Structure formats: C-alpha cells, structure tokens
Amino acid sequence: MQITDTIADMLTRIRNASTAKHETVDIPASNMKKAIAQILVDEGYIKNFQVIEDGKQGIIRVTLKYVGASRTPVIMGLRRVSKPGLRIYSSSEDMPKVMRGVGTAIVSTSKGVMTDKKARKENVGGEVLAFVW
Questions:
Q1: CA distances from residue 67 to 73, 75, 94 in whole angstroms, order as listed
Q2: What is the 3-state secondary structure (H, E, C) of 31-86?
Q3: HSE, side-chain direction, 13 A CA sphere, residue 77
Q4: pLDDT value at residue 101
Q5: Is the pTM of the predicted complex or chain greater than 0.90?
C-alpha cells in the first residue's frame, strides 16, 4: 500500500502508540522524519530516537516519554497542518503560536526543519508541517 502523506503517517503512529502506552514505535525512515524526530527530542516530547539500518529504507525507532506512575503521555496532541491537498505557508511575522506559546509548531524552511520559535528568531518563513502540544 502506497502512503501519500508520510509525515501524517509518522504523527499518527506516534499518537496511537502514545495512547496505547507503548514504550517504542517504529517508523519508516526519511531525512524529513529524522529532522522532525530530532525536534521532538529537543523540545522534550519524546525520550530519544535511533535509526536502524535494514538494508532498504531504514527504520526510526522512537522511544516515547511518559510522566508519573500513571504513565500519562507527555504528548497531549499532534496535528498535521499542511497537507498534500492544501499546503499552509507562513511568514516569520505571521508564524502561528500553538496553545498561546505552550505548544510547538514544526516548520520546514529554506534553512531546514525547525520550531516556530527558532524560525521567528532567524526571521525565516516556510511550510507549517505540524502542531505538537
């Protein structure tokens, strides 16, 4: 089966594994997904990730992060913003704030994939890929 939106597939896999309280989740690898996973680690939404070479595309194994004895997921929500059918772009001045600055927007810019805060600081706009809170 061909997946048309691989980033939405990645976010859905993380959301489903987090809801089911799994320790890890495997995602087919790509450079864009590695950059998104690195942002999720840097912002504290997941513990870590590792790239496993399987001789083909490779696999990203994401280790999820939970809080307390009740194992409440750190990721409360993940939402894909720009879709293949409707791309959403934003300038650095109009960059969206997720949950009034509590969450993080992941943006693909000419200087690479970065958070909304870093894009504002570097004064670059781009495609708004996803919201995480």
A1: 6, 10, 33
A2: HHHHHHHHHHHHCCCEEEEEEECCCCCCEEEEEECEECCCCEECCCCEEECCECCE
A3: 12
A4: 87
A5: yes
Low-confidence ranges of the chain (pLDDT < 70): 1
Backbone angles phi, psi at 58, to 5 degrees: 95, 160
Sequence-distant (6+) residues with CB within 8 A of 97 are 105, 116
At residue 113, the pLDDT reads: 97
- The one-character DSSP state at 115 is E
In whole angstroms, give the CA distance from residue 80 to residue 5: 10
Structure tokens at 84: 């293949």
Instruction: Identify whether the C-beta of residue 131 lies closer than 8 Å to the C-beta of residue 115.
Output: no
